[in-house]
Specification:
134 residues, alpha+beta, Alpha-Beta Plaits, four-stranded antiparallel sheet, 4 strands, binds ribavirin triphosphate
């Protein structure tokens, strides 16, 4: 069954001009780009999006990072879009992400890991509402 995933190229990825390359990987995989938009994230949206991490010592740093410049937010659609997007993205820490994954190919460290992908269809729906339906 077709599913939607929310994916966001973080400010470091946008700054480094990686949007085209990254979108191309999703398209080549077979996921369809339904929406894609450069946007600035407010502090409030960042705090809601990363609410599950608010007790972590790196939370403020994370909010500063994700609001440090425009992001490229997108909705991709296809069979098992959430799982397929996450396998393209790779593990959270780019140092541990294998070459061939987006974080493995384009990132060095967890503080700037280039991209976000929703971790479940339910979170995808919540994130699509948060970023696109306000
Ligand atoms: P994301 O939500 O961005 O796709 O990342 P994720 O599921 O792979 O990882 P999660 O544990 O939800 O962490 C969210 C984001 O927080 C930043 N982080 N920094 N400094 C640190 O130790 C640390 N740990 C996580 C990363 O930007 C991570 O993607």
């Amino acid at each position: 069954m077709s599913e939607k995933a929310f994916v966001m190229i973080k400010p470091d990825g946008v700054r480094r001009g990686l949007v085209g390359e990254i979108v191309s990987r999703f398209e080549k995989k077979g996921l369809r780009l339904l929406r894609g938009e450069i946007m600035e994230i407010s502090q409030e949206t960042a705090r809601v999006h990363y609410g599950h991490l608010q007790d972590k010592p790196f939370f403020e740093e994370l909010v500063d990072y994700i609001t440090s410049g425009p992001v490229f937010a997108m909705i991709v659609e296809g069979k098992e879009a959430v799982a397929n997007a996450r396998s393209l993205i790779g593990p959270t820490n780019p140092a541990e992400a294998p070459p061939g994954t987006i974080r493995g190919d384009f990132g060095l460290a967890v503080e700037e890991n280039v991209i976000h992908g929703s971790d479940s269809p339910e979170h995808a729906r919540r994130e699509i509402r948060l970023f696109f339906e306000k």
